Every structure is written in structure tokens, then in C-alpha cells.
Amino acid sequence: MTKPKVVLFDYGSGNLRSAFRALERAGGDVQLTSDLDAARRADGLVVPGVGAYAACMEGVLKSGVDAVIRERVAADAPVLGICVGEQVLFAEGIEHGVETAGVGVLEGRVELLDAPRIPHMGWNTVRADAGMRLFAGIGPEERFYFVHSYAAKAKPAGSLVAVCEHGEPFIAAVERGALAATQFHPEKSGDAGYALLTNWIRGLS
Amino acid sequence: MTVAVRVIPCLDVDAGRVVKGVNFENLRDAGDPVELAAAYDAAGADELTFLDVTASSDDRGTMMDVVARTAEQVFIPLTVGGGVRTPDDVDRLLRAGADKVGVNTAAIARPEVIAEIADRFGNQVLVLSADVASGAETDSGWEVTTHGGRRRTGIDAVEWCARAAGLGAGEILLNSIDADGTKAGFDLPLIAAVRAAVDVPLIASGGAGAAAHFPPAVAAGADAVLAASIFHFGDVAIGEVKQELKAAGHPVR
């Protein structure tokens, strides 16, 4: 059986070594590239991201991957956003009072969490809607690694979501057709993250 | 749905080798940071910290290789501290595969470096590491030190932590020089004083000698607990610490 081709898109955002290896370990034939054609053709496209929303969106726009994400979503081709790579899929992000337009394939905005301790840093549980493919076989007691101060708080129409709570409920993961995204870092979430990435890779073929 | 208390082993790495000795069973090479990192991951560590105690720049290159190999094999967060002075140092470590970077002396010498790093990479990558001693003529009675406590700075430790968080540090690694090495327990008043002054996550370090020492540190306000020798020498296992924390009503992974 050939491994599904996964493009981990490189638009200059942070540490991609773990994500690359974690996707490989989960069964993907992974390519780290900023080539848009490769991103178009891949069985699965992973959009990573750390740091500030505005800086990530700048990288996304500069690379041109925003158009590829929209094409893929329109064609129901698999896309997985991780952390700020999840956040930029939403319509907009607000950081330090500055509003930045996102790629916009998910409705809603990303805002500061209202919590006594910011950033939300560490391992937390999530409550996933029934039928989410990402969480198949993963129990509610499993924890995932989060590190963020901002999050989407409303469930996008027509989607399934996993909800986490830190000060208030927020969207920890979302799935709509072939579009999937996680606020947490599956590549840093040990065995639970491995199980989730394996679920995603299996769904590609 | 509460974030778990993180238990973090810390490894001192010099020229690509773990120093201060580690006494673990079933390791091929107890001096290899990558193999140890994998062993701690398997033992349930929630995060790992490497402290680069290397002096020479050649050995810094070796450290990058260690970080890269660890990030490729161990799928939990990795913090690297030691010798980080500029945003470019942070960039190199993040590219090598670190998730977070610890800054200590450089921030004391030039606090603006905290904002420079946070602005470029986000505050979640920046762990402000503070070595704190008591007996100081500061408002709080605690003082920030450098060189492992040998050099005093005259800076109030509690104010410093609050200032660093304000400048963009996403987390504080609070190490008590008084408690460090005593194995008599964490410095609880210090943890409580810093907790009251900052909203960012707080990692308590220094003084752990038994599993029972960990829950009071969390009760005093720590979000995470870090230790080195008691884990390395097998005095206390990560799992035992988690059991104690859980028994005290704190969430663990």
C-alpha cells in the first residue's frame, strides 16, 4: 500500500521538525515545501503555525497558500490546520486590538481567551462531538498539548467540534468535510497526538 | 477539563552529553540526551528541559544537533535554555526543533531582549528563568542572581518576574537558590509571592527531594514542577510525583 502524500506547508513559521516526523510516524509520505503545486496535488495539506496571528497571515499571504487552501476546501480535499495554522482558517483574528483577516474557510473570529492564566499552556482534555474522525478511538480522558492565548469560541455552521475549557469554553478542534484543524499541537501530544494524526492520515487514502 | 500540572525533568547538557550523571536502568548510553529524553517521555514526563551548560561556541553546534535529534524522536514539548542572548539565538534553537527557549542572564543585562523575542516569535516561546535568593535588601526580600547564585544583582525578584511577564515572557521558571540541592522541599513562600505578582504560567524549581514535596508547590501557585537530580538518580519516579499530585486533588496527565 502506498503511503498518502502529505505536504507540510513551509511559509516560514516556527519549528516544523516535530510536525514533519510526527506525520511520517503516523504513516504519511511527507514533504516540507513552499511549492504551491505540490500543496495542490498532495493527498493531504498541513497548515502549521506558531506565534502571532498577523505575522502568520502575512506569511500565508506572501506564500500564496491561502488560494490553495480555498481551492482544496471548495473541492473537499483534505486540509489540516495546527495551532495558529488552525486559527488562520477562520474569518478573522483579533490580537492586541488589531483585526486581521484570515483565510476565511471557517466562519468566526479568533479572540483572546478570558482566563486567569494566559497563555493556556499544557495538557488538557477535550469533549469531541460524536462522529469526529480525528478522535476515532481516542477516549475523553486523553490529553493534548496546548500553548496559546487566543482561540475561536463559536462553532462554525455545519461543522463538528471538540471543545476545551480554559477560563471559558473554546474550539479545540473542528471538522467539516475534508477540512480539519486543531488548536492544540498533535505533534507534541505524545501517544494521543499520534493516534489523532494516524486517524487523519488514514482518512487520506 | 482543567489543564494538568506539568512534571518536567531537566537535563544539563555539555558538549552533547548529559552531565551530573543519570542512573536509569535499561539505557544503552545514560549520557545521551536523546536517549534520556525518550526514557523520560516513556516515563510520563509532560515536557522536557535541556539546560545547555556548554561554554564554547563549537559545542553550541553540537547542542543544535542534540535538539534536532530529540525533536525528531520525542513528541512532547522541549525547552532549551543556557547561553541564549539574542532573538537570532532563539531563531536557531526553534529551527533546530525547540518549542520554547529559556532566557536568564541576557534578560537581566538587557530586559528589552524579552520584548524583542516575544514580538518576533510570540510570548509562548519565551521562558524567563530566574535564579532567586533570599536575604536581600529588596522590597520583597528576594533578589535575582546570576552564575548559579554566586552573583547578586540587587534586583527585586518578585518585581523582576512581573516586569518580565509584562515585557512578554510567556512563562516563568522560578528556581530557588536557597532550596536548590537541599532536597528539603520547594520554597513555598517564594512561589506564592511570585504567583501573586504574575498571570503567566509558573514553573517551580529547586529543593524537591521526595514525591510529597510536589503538591505543596502546586498549592502555593505553581502550574508546573521541575526537578533534575531526584529524577536522574531514580530517587523518585515521574509516576510517583503524578500519583502524589493526583491524591492531593491536582489534575495530571
UniProtKB/TrEMBL annotation, chain A:
Pathways per UniProt: Amino-acid biosynthesis; L-histidine biosynthesis; L-histidine from 5-phospho-alpha-D-ribose 1-diphosphate: step 5/9
Gene Ontology terms for molecular function: glutaminase activity; imidazoleglycerol-phosphate synthase activity; lyase activity
Residue ranges constituting the Glutamine amidotransferase domain according to the UniProt record: 8-192
Catalytic residues, chain numbering: 83, 185, 187
Keyword Zinc on entry: no
Pfam families noted in UniProt: GATase
EC numbers for this chain: 4.3.2.10, 3.5.1.2
Lineage top rank: taxon: Bacteria
PROSITE patterns the UniProt entry points to: GATASE_TYPE_1 (PS51273)
Localization in the cell: Cytoplasm
InterPro entries assigned to the protein according to its UniProt record, in alphabetical order: Class_I_gatase-like (IPR029062), GATASE (IPR017926), Imidazole-glycPsynth_HisH (IPR010139)
Annotated catalysed reactions: L-glutamine + H2O = L-glutamate + NH4(+); 5-[(5-phospho-1-deoxy-D-ribulos-1-ylimino)methylamino]-1-(5-phospho-beta-D-ribosyl)imidazole-4-carboxamide + L-glutamine = D-erythro-1-(imidazol-4-yl)glycerol 3-phosphate + 5-amino-1-(5-phospho-beta-D-ribosyl)imidazole-4-carboxamide + L-glutamate + H(+)
UniProt GO cellular component terms: cytoplasm
Keyword Oxidoreductase: no
Subunit structure: Heterodimer of HisH and HisF.
Functional note: IGPS catalyzes the conversion of PRFAR and glutamine to IGP, AICAR and glutamate. The HisH subunit catalyzes the hydrolysis of glutamine to glutamate and ammonia as part of the synthesis of IGP and AICAR. The resulting ammonia molecule is channeled to the active site of HisF.
Protein name: Imidazole glycerol phosphate synthase subunit HisH
TrEMBL record, chain B:
CDD domains: HisF
CC annotations in GO: cytoplasm
Subunit structure: Heterodimer of HisH and HisF.
Protein's organism: Glycomyces artemisiae
Role, per record: IGPS catalyzes the conversion of PRFAR and glutamine to IGP, AICAR and glutamate. The HisF subunit catalyzes the cyclization activity that produces IGP and AICAR from PRFAR using the ammonia provided by the HisH subunit.
Pathway: Amino-acid biosynthesis; L-histidine biosynthesis; L-histidine from 5-phospho-alpha-D-ribose 1-diphosphate: step 5/9
InterPro entries in the cross-refs: Aldolase_TIM, His_biosynth, HisF, IGPS_HisA/HisF, RibuloseP-bd_barrel
Key words of the record: Amino-acid biosynthesis, Cytoplasm, Histidine biosynthesis, Lyase
Family: Belongs to the HisA/HisF family.
Record protein name field: Imidazole glycerol phosphate synthase subunit HisF
Gene behind this protein: hisF
Keyword Cell membrane annotated: no
